[in-house]
Each structure stands twice: as C-alpha cells, then as structure tokens.
From TrEMBL:
Keywords: Heme, Iron, Metal-binding, Signal
InterPro entries: Cyt_c-like_dom, Cyt_c-like_dom_sf
Residues spanning the signal sequence: 1-19
Gene Ontology molecular function terms on file: electron transfer activity; heme binding; metal ion binding
Protein name (Swiss-Prot/TrEMBL): Cytochrome c domain-containing protein
Annotated source species: Sulfurospirillum cavolei
Keyword Heme appears in the UniProt entry: yes
Keyword Iron: yes
PROSITE patterns: CYTC
C-alpha cells in the first residue's frame, strides 16, 4: 500500500509540474526568481516550456533549445530559425550538448530556467497560433495580396516579416505572433 501511495504521489506531481509541455501564450519576460525586477531574458510566444514549480503568481519554467555559439537568441530546433528565447547574457545558458546540422553548423543544445507570470502560459499551442493567423489575415494583406502560408519555409519568414513589419506597423509581439503561426504552418 505504501509503495502505491508513493507511486501515485510521484505520478501526480509529474502530471502537475511538467508531465506535459506548456506554451507561452505571449512574449514574456523571464526572471531569475519570482521576486526579481530585472529580466534575464524573454520567452517568445508559442515556445514550449516545462513547468517546474509555482511561486505565487509566477511559475518556474525551463526552456530547452539550440543556440549558435555566443548568440543571444535561442531557437526551438537546431538549424530552424524559430526563436524561442532571447537572453540578456548568453553566458547564463546551461550547455547540455551540441548538434551539427546538415550544413556543418554546430548548434549548442542549451537550457535556461527562470520564472514567468503564470498568466503567460497556455496548454493549447493551436489556439495560441490562431491569434497569429488572425493577425496575419488582418495586417498582412492590406497593401498586397496575402502570401500563402506555405509560400516560404520557417527560415525565410523572419526576413519577410522584418521587411514588411514596419510598413504594416507591427509591434514586436504582433510580429512574433504572425511569424510563429507561419513557421508552424503545415
């Protein structure tokens, strides 16, 4: 009976804190602890994080991704320019491995733990990306015909949006929301 109780407790804890991934519902500052005032980075909309613990209105999370050496940008996948985290100090990232892509580029597999507002977390990536789809339709077809979502791949959309973002008066949050929708379009 005791073993069953311990097993059930561990399973429940695993379910509550990190069994399934959570996703950032919006761009959100990442803090070193729940009471910190200065961010150590910014997690980007739809980035997957593992929930580790709760502290008041904040949740401790871990983001794992890939970084070109010494870059302040961490991507969700090696070789694919889907931004998951922007850090203030690249030296604060924990290196957990490395991967070489088909072009010979070495990507560091890195992680960073920190605290985000619990309200910035969501469980349904599809509904988070839906907001980007709606913005894409509303903002990106006013000056020209709307591009097909499949017209460019995940590594090309960022430069397209950089070029068009200013003309469409996109905020940083809107640009990332649209970009993440287009990069995840299938």
């Amino acid at each position: 009976m005791f073993v069953k109780t311990i097993t059930l407790t561990l399973c429940l804890a695993s379910f509550l804190f990190g069994a399934g991934g959570s996703f950032m519902s919006k761009n959100s500052p990442l803090f070193s602890d729940a009471s910190a005032k200065e961010a150590i980075g910014e997690l980007i909309v739809s980035a997957e994080v593992k929930e580790l613990s709760k502290s008041g209105e904040y949740t401790e999370v871990e983001f794992i991704g890939y970084q070109p050496k010494d870059s302040a940008v961490v991507y969700e996948k090696a070789g694919v320019l889907i931004v998951g985290l922007e850090v203030a100090n690249a030296g604060a990232l924990k290196v957990i491995g490395e991967k070489t892509d088909e072009y010979g580029t070495v990507w560091l597999n890195v992680s960073m733990k920190g605290f985000v507002a619990s309200s910035a977390l969501g469980k349904d990536k599809g509904s988070i990306l839906q907001a980007g789809k709606e913005l894409f339709g509303a903002k990106c077809g006013t000056c020209h015909a709307l591009h097909a979502e499949s017209e460019f791949d995940a590594n090309v959309w960022p430069s397209i949006l950089d070029a068009m973002g200013e003309q469409a008066a996109l905020s940083k949050d809107e640009k990332y929301s649209i970009m993440k929708y287009l990069q995840n379009y299938k």
